[in-house]
Amino acid sequence: MTALQNPEAIRHFQSLCDACQGLVSRYHSPSELRLYADGYLHALRRTSVLDAQSQRRLEELIDRWILDPSSFIGPEGGLNALYESGRAY
After folding, report:
1. How far apart, in whole angstroms, are the C-alpha atoms of residue 22 and residue 7?
2. Domain count, the chain
């Protein structure tokens, strides 16, 4: 079972979801989302904010969630333009 039980872990999951959705709306790629999530999770590990079991469950859930494109809404409000290069460099 990988459901989050710890309220603090749930808050971190929601925060990370919101941040990743913000990145997607600015046309960031899945690999960039992965880097962001890895950094966030690493910071949680280093600060020992969560107990080991909650941390592991959060990491497993984030791994599955980031890989699922249906988790995100594209910049135009749908999946059709998800991750398309709309950024100006």
Report:
1. 23
2. 1
Residue 61 maps to a domain: yes
Amino acid at site 45: R
State how far the Cα of 7 lies from the Cα of 29, in Å rounded to an integer: 29
Asked if 44 and 12 count as a contact pair (C-beta separation under 8 A), the reply is: yes
Q: Distance between CA atoms of 46 and 78, rounded to whole angstroms?
A: 36
Give the structural domain span for 42.
Answer: 7-71
In this predicted structure, what is the pLDDT of residue 86?
Answer: 53
Instruction: Give the number of other CB atoms < 10 A from CB of residue 26.
Output: 10
Q: Give domain status of residue 87, yes or no.
A: no
Note whether residue 12 is domain-resident. Answer: yes
CA–CA separation, 1 and 55 (whole Å): 14
pTM equals: 0.77
Rounded to the nearest 10°, the torsion over CA 2, 29, 22, 69 is: -50
